[in-house]
Amino acid sequence: MTSASGQPSTTTIKCVAWDIDNTLLTGTFIESGTRQPPADAEMTTVLAELGRRGIVHAIASRNPPAAAAYAAQVTGSTFVAVECGWDRKSAAIGRILTELGIGADALAFVDDDPYERAEVCFALPDVLVLSPEDMTDALGWPEFSPAVVTEEARRRSELYLDGKRRQAAGREFGGSRDEFLRHCRTKITIALASGADVPRLHELSVRTHQFNSAGEGATEAAFLAMIGSAGREVMTVRLRDRFGDDGIVGGCVVEHGKDGRWTVRLLMMSCRAMGRGVIDALLAWLIRSAAERGASALEVPAMLNARNVPLRLALAAAGFRAAKTASVEGADPAAGRQQVLFRRSLDEPPPELPGWLTGPGRGQPAQLRPGGELDGAS
Amino acid sequence: MGCGVILDELRQLLADVTRRPELRAVPADAPLFGSGVGLDSLAGTLLLREITRRYGVDVAAEDINLDALASLATLADFVEGRSRQRGHGGPGEPS
To answer: Does residue B71 belong to the interface with chain A, where contact is any CB pair within 8 Å?
Structure first.
């Protein structure tokens, strides 16, 4: 019941939350003790291997915070979220999910105590609950084997820690979101994708849920074909600020119809970039580009589900409206999936381009529109 | 005036999710998207989640275009209407 090894899932685990006593350590951490138990050698190897695959680690332990610091020291691994306390483990896991902004099905929980495993299994049925013994095997499971490990994935722990420092700064900062983004020296760069960007674009297409218009992933071959095809533009969106360089955090695929219609076949962004102005900047850039290059219409077909409400909020904020709605055949009605065509009027004024955006047509050698400088700003 | 109570609660909620206390003074008809309030997808998601939790109203599931989010006044009307339909008076509902 506690192991899902017999039920391979297509969801890749993004984070493993670990218990400490008799899981990461070969014994029990003693608060006042001078001789602490050493790290479990097998789990230390598993931690390192998962880290190389871009899976981050967290701690959910009934211990004082000193135990987490000790576990990090002896295993040599980074824990991006630490929940030490005497609350239910499912509550600790819930807080980790919120902190990292990931879904329950993207998290695995490892604990030697069958009671704790059962409690998390019951409260959070989507979490993959495992014992330490499962973990050596688990390295071979599809859930723990992302097809590609990109530069962004290898640096994921570091990026989460940058994010924590950014959040802490944000809590102390008094002004609006835009003032904070400026204060952080946020820089968003939109550019035409090249072959080298394909692994990351593929990874984003399968890992993004809250900001994914297609509702399904695209293969590397599909991205390569789209990059090479006439009438299509594949764009990458990079993000960095003074706290760190997030690399490619989003992208889109735009199809230019013979009738002048622009159809955004895929719009996606990492949830890690949420709240940092990326999706708004990308939509504003799309609307401006479509209007300036004489498009007859700008449309985003989107597969709506319970998880991509954030994408709908961004579309609504940028002035997109549902033009056509259809239920998806064969889709589970309970899942509420719906195919909706969102359209943005190009007659109405486009949203402002933020000062921190660089893209074709704006402060960058214009790849799309030779000689096209928008307003010379930034 | 149940709506007035819900409106005040939503105004407080907006100030909380955006972490901008000055929004406690925002006019009921001020646009939530765009300049001014500038509700983004992060704050918007938190706001909708909290509305579902408090009032049992899932705005996103019932309103494809999220027109309810035009202003605090439209949002309060929407929440008030739906929670009453369901006999699901929120905490701000007069008894």
So the answer is: no
Q: What is the phi-psi region of residue A244: left when phi exceeds 0, alpha when psi lies from -120 to 50, beta otherwise?
A: left
Q: What is the pLDDT of residues A213-246, one digit of tens each?
A: 998 889 999 999 999 899 999 999 999 999 999 9
Which residue carries 């949203």 as its tokens? A351
CB A60, CB A92: distance < 8 Å: yes
> What is the amino acid identity at position A136?
T
The enclosing H or E element of B52 equals: helix B41-55
Residue carrying the six token digits 């019951």: A122
Coil, strand, or helix at residue A158? helix
| Block residue for tokens 């399968």 | A206
Kindly report the nearest CA distance between residue A322 and chain B, in angstroms: 6
Residue A284 near residue A353, CB atoms below 8 Å: yes
With a cut of 0.90, is the ipTM above it?
no
3-state helix, strand, coil in chain B (%, to 5): 60, 0, 35
The owner of tokens 């259809």 is A326
Contact A266/A336 with Cβ under 8 angstroms?
no
Distance from CA of B34 to the nearest CA of A (A): 7
